[in-house]
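Design a sequence for this backbone.
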């Protein structure tokens, strides 16, 4: 009788191991085409951050390069991944490289006027 209960208990435990649930995992920055189309040559790094958000990777050795990586794993298998790399120089955004990356156009935005504020007493 005891062997019968042990066998049933063992079968129940082992049957639970066969059904392993794997969660969906999203990692990185979701960069939409609409946001990429807003980028223009010469944009400052702050303007780019306002549009795309903080990059996933900011390389210490290459401060002028930002990488926006995204991956989606479903049931433990890679379903989608993308990498967008932005390059800056002293004048602002210089280049955009990646899958379906649009060509950068020249910026038509007017730079904000820097004003010196006087303290109010």
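Sequence:
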């Amino acid at each position: 009788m005891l062997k019968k209960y042990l066998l049933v208990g063992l079968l129940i435990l082992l049957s639970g191991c066969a059904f392993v649930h794997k969660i969906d995992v999203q990692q990185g920055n979701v960069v939409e085409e609409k946001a990429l189309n807003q980028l223009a040559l010469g944009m400052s790094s702050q303007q780019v951050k306002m549009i795309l958000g903080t990059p996933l990777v900011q390389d210490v050795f290459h401060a002028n390069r930002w990488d926006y990586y995204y991956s989606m794993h479903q049931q433990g298998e890679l379903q989608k991944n993308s990498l967008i790399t932005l390059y800056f120089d002293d004048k602002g955004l210089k280049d955009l490289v990646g899958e379906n990356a649009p060509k950068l156009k020249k910026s038509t935005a007017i730079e904000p006027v820097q004003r010196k504020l006087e303290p109010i007493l």
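Residues 21-100 form a domain with the Beta-lactamase Inhibitory Protein; Chain:B, domain 1 fold (CATH 3.30.1450).
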